[in-house]
Amino acid sequence: MKAIAQRVAAPVPAVDSARLGRLAIASLHAELACAPKPGLVTPFDSGSHHDMDAGTFLRSLFALRHYFTAVARIGALDARFDALRQCGIAAEAAMLRATGGINTHRGAIFSLGLLVAAAARCRQLHGHAGSAAQVCLAVQHWATDFASAPLDAGSPGQRARARHGVPGVREQAAAGYPVLRGLALPTLRHALASGLPREAAMCQTLMHLIAQVDDLNLLHRGGTDGLHWAQQQARGFLAGGGAFAPDWQARLRDVGKHFVTRRLSPGGSADLLACSMFLLQQEAA
User: Which pLDDT does position 148 carry in this prediction?
Assistant: First the structure.
């Protein structure tokens, strides 16, 4: 990955690639620190995961600290998708070395990596930050290439995608991330504008994502029944006021206990939450 970064280290005056890289890591760290999150790793517990904890995630983030800066440089230089792909492959290898073979951020390496590259490309083309929606749509610049790139058919997410016939991260990216533009970003903006603290706003956004997204991690762990159960739990939480209700944290911790009992983890929704945080932060950076 360091070699890739060196190959794309030509000056890019209009884009602070390191700044975008730091924002990406900060967004992933904010997702990790956010609690309570049903079934997901937080600084306080491992959720439904027996093979990882917050320390595992922190080691992964440290290993990925140069990756997002590198893909920002690649995006700003308008390089072909294969350069992004090779950088992502190297990042995944670094992640697995840091975590002892545990997948903590594979989905984020793809989705957040594409969004960082697109954000950098927007800045290079226009001389200023693009809106969150513009950055989502800018990912389509590489859609033809990543749609034809090889897939890891043996990964849990791809097996669930094939078994249940639902779109995965590639389809979301090729469509310009409609779930981010139409659901996650408006929810997060509204929650923050309404005065919710950042952590509460993030939890509110996460539960909206769980309620509506066909999360491949939930499908992999619980099948269709597990996905529908998780969606119903999220909808019930939101119907009771969500993170706007005074007792929201206690209610969400209770939901989380049932997720752990069923070994369900909405990892795909967590990735989308981190992407949403990055997209909002890059607007002002």
Answer: 79
| pLDDT value at 262 more than 50 | yes
pLDDT (tens digit, 9 = 90+) per residue, 149-200? 776 656 666 666 667 677 778 899 999 999 999 999 999 999 999 999 999 9
Over the stretch 97-120, which tens digit does the pLDDT of each residue have?
999 999 999 999 999 999 999 999
If pLDDT is split at 50, 70 and 90, which confidence band does 13 have? very low
Distance between CA atoms of residues 91 and 65, nearest Å: 9
Largest Cα–Cα distance in the chain? 53
Query: Rg of the chain over CA atoms, in angstroms?
Result: 18
**Is the peptide bond prior to 178 cis by the omega test (within 30 degrees of 0)?**
no
171 contacts: CB under 8 Å, gap ≥ 6: none
- CA distances 115 to 25, 139, 146, 187, 205, Å, are 13, 6, 13, 19, 19
| Rounded-to-integer distance, Cα 267 and Cα 216, Å | 8
The burial of 22, by beta-carbon neighbours within 10 Å (0-12 exposed, 13-18 middle, 19 or more buried), is given as middle
Tokens of 166: 């639902």
CA 141 – CA 78 distance, rounded (Å)? 9
Q: Could you state, in order of their start, the residue ranges of all structural domains in the chain?
A: 2-284
Measured between alpha carbons, how far is 40 from 35 in angstroms, rounded to an integer? 9
Neighbours of 5 (CB within 10 A): 18
Q: Locate tokens 């909206």: which residue? A: 208
